Amino acid sequence: MKIKPLGDRVLVKPLTSDEVTHSGIVLPESAEKEQKEQGEIVAVGNGPKIGKLKLRVGQSIVFGKYSGDEIEIDKIQYKFLKDEDILGVVEK
Questions:
Q1: Of 28, 55, 77, 87, which sits most exposed with the smallest number of CB within 10 A?
Q2: CATH architecture observed for domain 1-16+41-92
Q3: Adjacency order of strands within the sheet including 76-82
Q4: What is the rounded average pLDDT of the residues 42-58?
């Protein structure tokens, strides 16, 4: 299935967060975790605000953990994010 975001929205595939710290400590579900997430842009809308951000498919972005609307397509979780939900672009 193919979905095209409308207006100033992007479709993002969130990257899975590690449940083990760098030092090897396993974090339980109840542990307080960071409030930011990263994801890869899968599709970009054609709104004017998104156009100004110059986002493109394949870029990694940072967004708030609880921002956007979740959707499942072909058993894969995605998020629809508005332009203001995007905090930054990850440069490699």
A1: 28
A2: Roll (2.30)
A3: 69-73, 76-82, 9-14, 36-44, 60-64, 86-90
A4: 93
